[in-house]
Amino acid sequence: MLKTIKLSCLASLFFAGGLATQLHAQTVNDSIEAAATGDKKEAKAQVHKLKGILVQGIVKDAKTNEGISGINVSVKGYSAAITEDNGTFKIEVPNLEAVLTISGLEYQTKVFALRNRNSGLQIYMNEAYYSTNYLMADMPAGEQMQYENSKAASIVNFKKDQWSNPINESVGGFLQGKATGLTSIRNSGTPGAGAYLTIRGFNSLYATNKPLIVVDGMIYEDDEYGSGIVQNNLTSPLANLDVKDIEDVTIIKDGSSLYGTKGANGVINITTTRATELTTKIDFTMYGAYNQEPTQLPVMGASAFRTYVSQLEASKGLSPTQIAALPYMNDDTAYPDYYKYHNNTNWQDQVFKPSASQNYFLKVRGGDDIAKFGLSVGYVDSKGIIEKSESKRYSTRLNAALKLTEKLSMDANLSFVNNLQQTWDQGLAYKTAPMYLALVKSPFLNSNDVNELGEVSPNLADVDNFGISNPRAILDNGFGTNNNYRFFGNLKFNYEINKNWDISTILGLTFNKERESFFIPDLGVADIDLPTTIGKNRSGSEVQNYNNLYTDTYASWVKNSSEDHHFNVRFGLRTQNNKSESDLGLGYNSSTDDFTSVGAGSNLLRYVGGNLGKWNWLNVYANGEYNWRNKYFLSASYAVDGSSRYGDDADTGKDQYALMSAISGAWLISSEDFMKNANDIDYLKLRVSFGQSGNDDIGNYTAQKYYVSQNLLGMQGLVRGNIGNPDLKWETVSKNNIGLDAGLFREKVNISFDLFSNKTKNMIVYETVDGATGFDYVVNNSGAMRTRGFDLGFNSRIFNTPDVTFDFGFNISRYKNKVEDLPNGDILTNFSGATYITSEGRDANLFYGLKADGVYSTTADASAEGLSRRLTNGDLIPFTGGDMRYKDMNGDKVIDNNDRVVIGNPNPGVHGSVTTNVTYKRFSLKGLFTYSIGNDIYNALRYHMESMSGYENQSVAVENRWRAEGQQTDIPKAVWGDPMGNSEFSSRWIEDGSYLRLKTLVLGYDFAVESKYVKYIQLYATANNLVTFTKYLGYDPEFSATSSVFGQGTDIGLAPQFTSYQLGLRLGL
């Protein structure tokens, strides 16, 4: 009841403020309408009817410095005028603190503050989409032009000219470099892989750190709701959204409470195709691309590998005679298998192949006074650089706006996408990932059988003596597919009660079905161990369904009381009902590799399983905005959240609702009278915000006790699945932000700077419990964490002439994380051989291992230090020459886990982008550089290629391994099984992950068009991932192997991003 009273009081505050102000002056619609239609005489006549203050000035082109005719100049809701042939204008305004809105074809609409000036005004106009200082804001009363971020929060908005950059196939790629504080890291180079998105670092250890995605007013679920069966194949539902459908993007970085417990990590609000004009427009774009295979990692050739194997065998105790007698070491040409083991195969050539991609997109927009529409269809065939990997996407979208009656309107936003992905196991899938096998497969073997005469058979070779699979066998006889269907759409109804009030409702539906299948053949692939037998070939199929019913009903009130006070209030109710289902089947040992379905496997070995998910969300919200004379802005929001995920006793008693609030304010300093002579300052704005939001990603049933089925000795039964926690609730994130925006020198220089601090309370942690319970942990809200940092954005126009323009910009972001409360002490997490530590008072997810300090040159050096290695059985073995030297951190003369320390931080010191744009007449050249500085990477792939403990081929670096007493090297000796832990997780494997990458370079040419049917023609050429400057030794320093915090910075060998060259055409009719 108390929370309901709070909500009611807040709403009453906004209404009372509106009613307390004086009545709004009579709007002079006739003059504005006359200006909008270009009737200069009528506009002038209407202006002279007003009893205001006369203002005079001139509107000029920023490039030519000449006056522009036919430009609309208006004071919203009061008066309007049109510039003369020489660019001059006269307009009456209610006061000299009013704001002019200036707009015209081919120019970016501008907002201009009078600052107590009434004559001699000079207003410079730039081309459309020049900057994001001004925007069309979706306010409760409809769209209106205003200063960027009039809501006073930390918001970045960029309106995308949908044909200005058609090169990106994914939303993640499109967002790279667009906004300070936004991190977009492509998961891998696999087509359709998606990207890992975060805003200002992370706020949680175990809950999601992804920002909330809202598309056309409806939440777009971007979570992976099931587990894929093709290993390390990362997909993202956001990859189903075609970039060329996007009209504009708004990124909310600070504490917006409107989305309650879904807005903790910021919000990315995307608006898709809109039809705003009555004339029919047709836009078509296409391109073809050549994808270049990546630079290969240097691995040993046949001769070097044979030498390495002989030393490995010697370390097992074999004599030179015994080694020479091994089949793969026999150099006698008369030996029947001589030619089988005397090849020099480049396995990377067998797996990596150049490829070609293509993309076609058609959009039609038009309508009349009653109905407007936007229809698009797209086809993308994106191929990868691993043979046969590709993603084919078929998309269609229909957005329509219908005026049903004078007061009732309806918007429809409907899309359907089919995405078919062909892929393979990736990363450290030791027996089945073609890319990994291409690195570790013996080079003296052939992909096909070779007879005693040296003739190569068309038959593929089977598994080798070392138990390593043949990657060609997987590529030729196996498969991995992911077939995804997604419908995402909503209907929005709006009823205008009167000029101040309207009511809207959104009804939305998401339907997603995904079928993933794979087959691994018997021939050429290493066997796996099953509980009762050996697994030969294997197959799998998983079907995942997700359904989401979304509603958002709200009322909006707008009130402009006189020319000074402007109120906007919105309050409403959102609901979301979610269901998911996953059904899995695995089959083993079909009678032949020709039978690839799950049903063809042995009945006794078949496995079936799956899971069901269901969760609901309720959000009651209110938002109020006020500005005075467009100089002082205040915004407040409040939300009450309920979720089926919360525990029965969450918060207080039986109250399962989260309360979130936020307030922000801004001062447009440049509109003050004392700034009227500051001609070089176009705008200057100070922003402050404080807010709370939450994170409800705590698991659908974690708070409840539940049971799972289990098979024991052929008997099926139910056992407890967890320890429920009825007190479990959402994580609460408090965000504070202060920012400054400035536009200088006729907006040739634009700067934005923010300082932020985020505090997470009630953070989810896994607390250990007594083993007698049968469980390892219980989930609790007992953690706390803080993230601080800054964002800086800079954009400038260095040259601005009719023939030549040169724009330069950059953004830089930094976040620093600190864990403040962990009641159970340090958290150690393992991922692909790496150990992460999270402890109070330090950054989260730091690399934790031994500190390497070179290699013992001699046994005498090792003996002098007197250090020993503790083996897994507890025995102590002294180090000798050729072993790794580790720091004895605790001084007990024993190297073991007690000597582990922090050895790296996967989080960057700073990250961001650099942009350039040069135009010369009809030519344009655009460049985007992305960078990351100060982040560490655990090179797990190099660990497997330099550990020298088995028969896997190694990097050429191991040719410098220790081989004799006194040798100076940083590579230890090769020993079978690595008993001394020379390849232990240590600083030896941590590398500097800093990089600077030329992400895109686009050269375009706009043809002169004089046809009444053709609006524009542009030809362009693009290079993606053209060059990367880095010290990192792996394929690619930019990757994300998991969406979890624990796992960032670990390179498990996913397909790298590759260089591609595109040639495209854009056509407008």
TrEMBL record:
Residues 1-25 form the signal peptide. It is found in: Cell outer membrane. It is a multi-pass membrane protein. GO terms for cellular component: cell outer membrane. Gene3D superfamilies: Carboxypeptidase-like, regulatory domain (2.60.40.1120), TonB-dependent receptor, beta-barrel domain (2.40.170.20), TonB-dependent receptor, plug domain (2.170.130.10). Keywords: Cell outer membrane, Membrane, Signal, Transmembrane, Transmembrane beta strand, Transport. Residues 153-267 form the TonB-dependent receptor plug domain. It comes from the Bacteria. It holds the Pfam family CarbopepD_reg_2. Belongs to the TonB-dependent receptor family. NCBIfam families: OMP_RagA_SusC. This is SusC/RagA family TonB-linked outer membrane protein. It comes from Flavobacterium agrisoli.
